[in-house]
Amino acid sequence: MSAQLINDVKTTFIETFKTDPILIFSPGRINIIGEHTDYNDGFVFPAAVDKGIAAAMQKSDSNVSTAYAMDKDSHIEFELDKLKPSAQGSWENYVFGVVAEIQNRNKVIGNFNIVFRGDIPGGAGMSSSAALENSVVFGLNELFDLGLTKHDMILISQKAEHNYVGVKCGIMDQYASMFGIENNALLLDCRTVESEAYEIDFKDHELMLINTNVKHNLSDSAYNDRRSACESIAELLGIKALRDATEADLDTIKDKVTSENYQKALYVIQENNRAEKASKAIKENDLDTLGALIFQSHDGLQHQYKVSCEELDFLVDQAKANEHVLGARMMGGGFGGCTINLIAKSEAKAFGEAASIAYKNKFNKACSVYYIKLSQGTHLVN
Ligand code: GLA
Asked: Is the CB of 169 under 6 A from ligand 1?
């Protein structure tokens, strides 16, 4: 967590509202493996990181509430009983959505002010949106004594994303951001919404991210389309979710679905198996197997699930060509954002530099390399 970030929101809050706020840090996340499996009730393997959103919040006597997004230098006033979604893509939908979903649960809140800023760029595939939603719900729960559990809070954040942001996301991002544990990744069963913590110490290897710094349009609608394709195939199979299907089950309806949708469902079934295999590999410290599974995951996301893009594929190809990278893949929803790389510590810097030069030559724009620390979930800062 960046002390600078916390200090920035605190100082700005006090200057603007002349009162002391409570301070919240809510992290973004990585995901080792298990992509697009969460809304299929499957397994994912995320971890909270030391980057995210810092928020300063306090109750207000005014008859309106105010939210100030420091990074965008944009502020908005709103009335709690007149909330509706703003235009798609507006940052305030994350705040409005959480407030509205809290009220939908018949919880009563009063007016409040919030100032926030972050150190993960939107579109990086690191869940800056879940981090923001979680910071808002966590802060409101504190300020107004709402008695919400962490499980309640992540469901509120997820609903905000569904109903105000318009992305029918699974639960991975909100869960990882809220429940993160320092130095651990969480093997999360998205059906039970319970996780097992795995201490991550890859000895002479580490995880490194490279952000393509692109976010392609239509990624939200492509995401929702894939979710509904998965749901319709599950329905055809007569099961609750694709998590319950085997490849053999899928073959029984092969001639009833398009070959594109068959490949998508096959990807989900295989990726879910990979997430479980990866957890065994981590337990046994078998990094070669883990790396191979990560490369296979990308292959499926690129060719079967079709949520990758040229820039991500290029960075994964760079990784494949480097013997010190054991595995690399796109991370998060796709169509841009980061790759996650399992790499020898001693070679990380050199690979980051080489990949950056190659990326610049190819696309005439810069990518960004991030070193991350697995960190604690959403919490109050003193
Ligand atoms: C986004 C969603 C998550 C998950 C990932 C893909 O980050 O918010 O719920 O579906 O994409 O694994």
From this structure: yes
Single out the catalytic residue among 8, 38, 50, 173.
173
pLDDT digits 0-9 by tens, 220-266: 889 999 999 999 999 999 999 999 999 999 999 999 999 999 999 99
Residue with CA closest to ligand 1 atom 1 = 333
DSSP 139-195: HHHHHTT----HHHHHHHHHHHIIIII-----SHHHHHHHH--TTEEEEEETTTTEE
- The structure tokens 């999360």 sit at 188
Q: What is the pLDDT of residues 286-320, one digit of tens each?
A: 999 999 999 999 999 999 999 999 999 999 999 99
8 Å CB contact between 26 and 177: yes
Residue 217 has pLDDT above 90, yes or no: no
Q: Whose CA is nearest to atom 11 of ligand 1?
A: 333
Nearest ligand 1 atom to alpha carbon 161 = 8
- Angle subtended by helix axes 310-320 and 287-303, to nearest 10: 150
Q: Output the CA 263–ligand 1 centroid distance in Å.
A: 19
Task: For a ligand 1 pocket test, name from 43, 173, 305, 335 the mutation site with the most ligand atoms within 8 angstroms of its C-beta.
Answer: 173
**Other beta carbons within 10 Å of 285:** 12
**CA 173, chain centre distance (Å):** 4
- Dist CA 282 CA 365 (whole Å): 35
